[in-house]
Amino acid sequence: MSTATPFTAPAPAPATGSVLLAARNVVKSYGGVHALKGVNFEIHRGKVTTLFGENGAGKSTLMKILSGVEKPTSGEIELDGERVAFTSSSDARDHGISIIHQELSLAPNLSVRDNIFMGRELRTPTGVDFAEEARQTRALMTDLEEEIDPMTLIQDLRLGQQQVVEIARALSVDSRILIMDEPTSALSASEVEVLFKVIRDLTSRGVSIVYISHHLEEALQVTDYAVVLRDGRITATAQRKDIDLGWIVRNMVGENFDLGSPPTGYAFGEAALEIDDLSVADESSTDAPAIDHLSLKVRAGEIVCIYGLMGAGRTELLEAAAGRTHLSVTGGRVLLEGEDMASLSIAQRIARGLVLVPEDRQRDGLVPTMSVGSNLSLASIRSFVRGLLMSAAAERELVGESIRNVHVKTAGAGASIRSLSGGNQQKVVIGKMLATEPKVILLDEPSRGIDIGAKAEVFRLLAENAKKGLAVVYSTSEVGECLSVAHRIVVMRRGKISAEFGPDANKDDIMAASGEAVAV
After folding, report:
1. Do 206 and 45 contact (CB within 8 A), yes or no?
2. 452-467 helix and 422-434 helix, angle to the nearest 10 degrees
3. Does the keyword Transmembrane helix apply (predicted)?
4. CATH of domain 19-252
């Protein structure tokens, strides 16, 4: 019978910290585009090697080559000092290399158990041993401190829990090398701490970790070796003792980098969005509502940041305001320039000028089979209708203008949306909603999974539109993002507003108001 035990690893080889896997002069080209330009990258035995870089720098391409998903155009891969050539991800996995991909690759209509063991089912002479698969799934969930039933469908889990399942699937395989590409992008602070404990446990038993994250301060907590990739080349390497946050940012994006500041020099307009005594039921719990009699007013031209830990109600607040129908609004009103939105659908609210950029851009913000241009024009399609026909010229004009306005880096409007980096995909989602000429834009974790440079571009874009009178509300679980462009910071805790601050707020005060422990 085939078995797999969570968190087991081969006995550590001698010389912990020595090079286990290395890329030598690796080049990867897609037609005339060179994604990697002679990269030399080393993974150290029993250590965490963190790879930093902006979206499009080549990080994911390099990891796909090391995990057998892609083949290099030229160059060599060495494992234990011997040259290897992986024919597939399964071949790499047989050599002890597993990867957690940045974008979730789960089957939403299958259970947690079936997703974890998909393609490598535990078999007996009489068939699949579902009971043993369920037992091992429970053990994985226990180690990751998540109370998730093995038979729960993926589509019924929140995004952070889906990320945990993705991690559990990789951990269920005995691996010598585990590549983690943005593993914490949807995790709460407590879930990140659990993952870090798992990482320390794995490295103590000789497993090598490659860690990729846009959460720079977070990544420094687990880093042993740091490598910076920029425009397909390695630009800097160092040990943890020799680096700090400034070293990472300088090598990624250059000197004098600034995330942004609130736009100034104009007066706010009248109230654009009013949330009045809003209550939303929590479908996963009967103990307390997701939103509990919350009121909030946002003026035209104002940028409001909503900060809170996972489960504070940030997403439910924004989705309820936007009219997402899966939520149960039990009381209160949402007003756009004084008009009650209660009877209006999502499409009608968009037409009135109230739009939402969702947290999960892959599932809710983009159509992956469509082009960049088609995604950008999707929410504005009614404006192209001329009689019984649609004006292709009007659509082309809007798409071209949107690409310029939100600074999307793309080969053209006809390029596949999948060809863009995460940061550029996010700008397409934002550009799609801005193309509708909204009065209020709601953004749920707009910087999730994008690098610090793309993050700065997104916040500059929001500031530019606020100067034109757009009311902006964005949520975040990163306290540093509260102190970038927001005029006002609203802290949520257990479905209520626990505090409000101005742009000169103190980081510790914001964290304390959310119920988050503050380091002393």
Report:
1. yes
2. 10
3. no
4. 3.40.50.300
